[in-house]
Write a structure and sequence with these properties.
The chain is an alpha/beta fold. Among the domains are: 37 residues; 63 residues. Helices cover 35% and strands 20% of the residues. A five-stranded mixed sheet has the order 5-4-3-6-7, with helices on one face. It has a two-stranded antiparallel sheet with strand order 1-2. It is elongated, with a radius of gyration of 30 Å.
């Protein structure tokens, strides 16, 4: 028995809506495929380069001294630290799980290196225990919101 809603048969309406949704998803998929295979719609690959008027020529004479302007940003690539991730009740260092005393021993063997602490769903007790122990040791640490 077919269900009627105010004089309409529900089946054809539902099938029509499904066809529209499938057509929309299919059209979006076809558009994505076309754009990804045709360099974003820019034409052939040789046309997708930088126009000659936009190209910058970098020619220097041998006597010309090339120097970079001094940067005001700190260089972070040479900084070293001990990264500890607190996850639940566990302490993760270099992908391995340790207990608190083991983490503290690792920190003691690397004096002078700051500790970067990341919270990955840490329990409050585990996180606070690590902070308290680092404060007791006098170790420098930075609390990071990302891991």
């Amino acid at each position: 028995m077919r269900k009627r809603v105010k004089g309409f048969i529900v089946g054809p309406i539902v099938i029509g809506l499904i066809c529209v949704a499938v057509g929309f998803v299919g059209g979006a998929g076809c558009m994505w495929y076309y754009m990804s295979t045709h360099q974003g719609g820019l034409g052939e690959a040789e046309d997708a380069g930088i126009p000659d008027e936009m190209a910058v020529s970098e020619t220097h004479t041998p006597d010309e001294e090339l120097t970079e302007p001094p940067t005001t940003e700190p260089v972070t690539e040479n900084l070293s630290y001990i990264k500890v991730i607190v996850s639940g009740n566990d302490y993760v260092y270099k992908g391995e799980v340790f207990r608190l005393q083991e983490i503290l021993a690792i920190i003691r063997t690397n004096p002078g290196l700051p500790v970067r602490i990341s919270d990955d769903g840490a329990s409050l007790r585990a996180y606070d225990s690590l902070i308290d122990a680092l404060d007791e040791m006098g170790a420098e640490y930075v609390e990071s919101s990302t891991s």
